[in-house]
Amino acid sequence: MADTLHSSPILVKLVDTAEPTRGHALKPYQWTGGTRAYLVPMLIGAATLAVSLVVGFSETFREQFYFSYLVGWTFCLSLALGALFVVLIKHLTKASWIVALRRIPEALAASFPFLALLSIPIIIGLFDDHGLYHHWSIDGIADPGSEHYDEILAGKVAYLNKPFFLLRLAFYFVIWTLVSSKLWGLSLRQDLSGNAHIAAKQRKVSAWGLPLVALTTAFGSYDLLMSVDPHWFSTIFGVYFFAGAFMAAFCLIALLCMFLQRMGMLRGVVTREHYHDLGKLMFAFVVFWAYIAFSQYMLYWYGGIPEETIWFRHRLEHGWETHSAILLVAHFILPFLILLPRAVKRNLPLLAVMAVWLLVMQWFDHHWLAMPVLHYDQATFHWLDVSCWIGLTALFLGVTLWRLSRHALVPQGDPFLAKSLRFENV
Amino acid sequence: MLKRLVRDLKATMGIYQAREDRVYGLLAEFEHPGALLKAARTVRMAGYKHFDTHSPFPIHGMDKAMGLGQSKVGYITFLGGATGLALATWLQWWTSAVDYPINISGKPFFAIEPSIPIMFELTVLFSALFAVGGMLLLNGLPRPYNPLFYSRAFARVTDDAFFLHVAASDRQFDLEGTEALLRDAQAQHVEVIHDHGYSELHA
After folding, report:
1. Chain A residues with CB inside 8 Å of B107's CB?
2. Helix, coil or strand: residue B164
3. Which residues of chain B have pLDDT under 50?
4. What's the confidence (pLDDT) of residue A168?
5. Which strand ranges, in their side-by-side order, compose the sheet holding B189-194?
6. Helix (H) or strand (E) holding A296
7. Which one of B74, B78, B116 has the shortest CB-CB distance to A298?
8. Do A342 and B117 touch (CB under 8 A)?
9. If you average pLDDT over every residue of chain A, what do you get?
10. A296 → chain B, closest CA residue
11. Of A183, B44, B70, B151, which is most buried by a Cβ count within 10 Å?
């Protein structure tokens, strides 16, 4: 697979907008993991995904497949967006502690062109009358004479229609790609020249990039996840999506650092002090997620208006109440208590367990958002849920690792690198 | 036994008892923060427990050099949080379901949903109060009286001087031996501090 990628510039461009710069990397910052480290996840991902696609597009599984794929794909999208937020906020706050491991969120955030390619099944699902968005995308929704006529959705048709949906999706990906590839390019140029002015440019891009990415993330979550149940609406939904994404990004950054260190890279670069800070941020955004989730729930509970509460009702009956309870306990109460002590955040095996746990919960959360629309009468897990998730995630990680292997693993030209390497928690 | 325990507990707060003969301890001055850091390590390695350092600004690595370890204030904060949570739950239940139940748009008298903001707020409030209270309890502040103030040189501690104080209450304290140790650790001056309850300068 690596050979085809190397010989095909368009595919390579899709994965990494920059030319490889690994030849200029300082010795201790070079990729030494060989090709297996990224080929194995890539192949596992591609194979699992291929099986899911072939089976998924058969008549029996198609409806299930669209939803399973959506959950797996938005999971990967949330990781890339969370990582992009990490980079943007890092530049804007001039945070120096994270510089030593900055290349990892940068590489994760450079995935948008590749994720856009993987959105094809979602778009096919848009045009299927039994697909993801059929509640609003079916013909005749705004025609009083049609059997599909829906008075509420007729009022939303100016926003919820197929051409505008596609246009918005394209716009989001253009913005995300533009901001992330600009930051990626600047960061790699900083490696080569060590030019001190590049830090100011990164800050500048982040200044206009952050509000744009924030708005497109919110609207992206409305379009992709909220509109599967188009009668319902929640203005805080975008923040809810962001909270989970940001938390999951820190989990994945910590896991990737541990993985690279196991392979013998980043030794002495990423220290316990950095992991401690990643753990603090994981903890903080576990709490933030719960805060936002509750803010959404409480207002609808107080209002008690049927068209709003129905969404929660679907998630509190027919077995979905178990999923809701698991979300409360395993996405908030237990991680809150476990991640609270300092010792846990400084214990790498424990932190790794918590990072995997919370990544699973992030997927479980997206599953809980989308799946009750399809299986409103009985809570289930389908094997396609798992195979789409594992396939997409493995492919996403393999491609990210391959992108990492093409450049220095540490932003060696950053003026604050030395400070970050010395960083210690008080 | 109990007296010893109380004395050691107070010593962790930086409050040391003077000896029978009113000797409070030895105050050594050092030239720069590095020398103070080294001296703190030397004194700790020599087995002293009742000693403290004083400098115009925080010195990086001093906690480690003095062997202070991790602060216990987090546990007190957690206790405060749990207290606040429990109190808020009881408050919500008692006021809305027991003492003054009112039917508001058919909602249950006591429900967890509208109670959570109060539970959250009181958890945060009590955590904060316990954190501040615990901090003051553990570091023995505010402390308007300190025998070290009798030393004329010590006035410069908020300006440009670096001091290490070994208390006489330490089991290993010995006027000659401790002074020799401090001088070996590059102290510029070593002064015996007496605690008479008044300043010798005006006596």
Report:
1. 304
2. strand
3. 202-203
4. 95
5. B51-54, B162-167, B23-30, B189-194
6. helix A272-303
7. B116
8. no
9. 90
10. B113
11. A183
- A384 with A65: CB under 8 angstroms? yes
Domains in chain B: boundaries: 24-196
Residue of A nearest to B61 (CA): A426
pLDDT in the model for residue A150: 83
Per-domain residue ranges of chain A: 2-421
How close, in Å, is residue A126 to chain B by CA atoms?
Answer: 37
Contact yes or no for B114 and A294 at CB 8 A: no
What's the CA gap between A78 and A366, in Å, rounded? 10
pLDDT of residue A5: 40
Which tens digit of pLDDT belongs to each residue from B30-50? 999 999 999 999 999 999 988
Summarize pLDDT for A235-267 with one digit per residue, the tens. 999 999 999 999 999 999 999 999 999 988 888
Q: Provide the H-helix boundaries in chain B.
A: 2-12, 33-45, 62-66, 73-93, 112-139, 175-184
State how far the Cα of B4 lies from the Cα of B7, in Å rounded to an integer. 5
Q: Give yes or no for A298 touching B (CB within 8 A).
A: yes
Chain B nearest-CA distance from A426, in A, is 8
Q: Which residues of A touch B80 (CB under 8 A)?
A: none
Judged by CB atoms closer than 8 Å, whether chains meet at A298 and B117 is answered as yes
- Low pLDDT (below 50) residues in chain A: 1-7
Separation between Cα atoms, residue B11 and residue B5, nearest integer Å: 10
* CA–CA distance, B52 with B12 (Å, rounded to integer): 10
Q: How many CB atoms lie within 10 A of CB A87?
A: 30
